[in-house]
């Protein structure tokens, strides 16, 4: 039996190896500098140990969030920090911040963003997802069609149940562009099975370019469409995001700024008029 450390010489040189064996990387990284400080400032041993334990816990949290962010497959850069709230007057900032706080995820409620292309649906839902991961929740972002293909393959391998169970570990699954899913009998019913399985227990956040009335193109028939929408909206927040495309607005603003920044000479006046006409044409084309 190993003798208690107090009654024999302790091998300090073995400390790094012991900390690695104990899986305490932050202890490993910080103990030496902290020990020096503790010696100089004559900390009691308990304070030294508690300070190290605090660092280990804080860094463990940060590492876990980092790992969950990677596993979430959320696209980089689509966060609330880069979201221009003023560009979306139909959804006030406090409402978005409340969604990012995540109470709705605790009860398995859903979030549905419906609106035209470029309105910021993907950005907004990913930003909320990002905030939720940082608050300790598990989130998965996926294009609806990608997930459907995976679930369909799982069903062919008689492993659909296991694939759906694997998704249970995520508090929130973000299904991007649900209306791009093909009206394929098998694919669509795996989508229904996912919705039915998560109903009232695990959240879904969905983006759609089409209103509910057009969702029958996604599900095999009218009855399944009604059953799916019924479950989704029962406990849900629906964001109507029919605003001008953000991409288009920023492109137009950029050009207007450039035009203002370069005052036109007589010769350029004609060009500037032509630019304006081109802008108007482009704007009409995109509308
Ligand atoms: P949607 O999913 O509705 O088609 P996206 O979320 O993909 O639109 O937005 C299109 C582009 O515009 C993306 O690059 C996105 O980051 C940006 N964008 C949209 N809305 C905003 C916003 N309110 N603030 C900042 N960037 C935005
Ligand atoms: Mg999108």
Helical stretch count? 12
Rg, Cα atoms, Å: 27 Å
Question: Mind describing the biggest β-sheet?
Answer: 5 strands, parallel
Quote the beta fraction: 5-15%
Distance between the termini: 80 Å
What is the helix/strand order? HHHHHEHEHHEHEHEHH
> Residue ranges: pLDDT <50 for 5 or more in a row?
264-287
> How are the strands ordered across the major sheet?
2-3-4-1-5
Give the overall average pLDDT.
Answer: 87
In this entry the ligands are: adenosine-5'-diphosphate, magnesium ion
Shape: globular
Fraction of helical residues? 55-70%
Structural class by SSE content: alpha/beta
How many beta-strand segments?
5
In short:
This protein is an alpha/beta fold. The protein has twelve helices and five strands.
SSE inventory with pairings:
Blueprint: H1 15-21, H2 25-40, H3 45-72, H4 93-101, H5 103-106, E1 110-114, H6 121-134, E2 139-143, H7 144-156, H8 160-167, E3 172-176, H9 185-198, E4 203-208, H10 222-234, E5 236-240, H11 246-261, H12 266-286
Parallel strand pairs: 1-4, 1-5, 2-3, 3-4
Helix pairs in contact: 2-3, 4-6, 7-8, 7-9, 9-10, 11-12
Residues 78, 82-84, 87-88, 115, 117-123, 207, 246-247 line the site of adenosine-5'-diphosphate.
Task: Please explain how this structure is put together.
With about 290 residues, the protein is α/β, with parallel strands linked by helices. About 55% of the residues lie in helices and about 10% in strands. It has 12 helices and 5 strands. The chain has helices spanning about 15-20, 25-40, 45-70, 95-100, 105, 120-135, 145-155, 160-165, 185-200, 220-235, 245-260, 265-285, and strands at about 110-115, 140-145, 170-175, 205-210, 235-240. Strand 3 (about 170-175), helix 9 and strand 4 form a beta-alpha-beta unit. Residues about 265-285 have low confidence and may be disordered. Magnesium ion binds near residues 121 and 176.
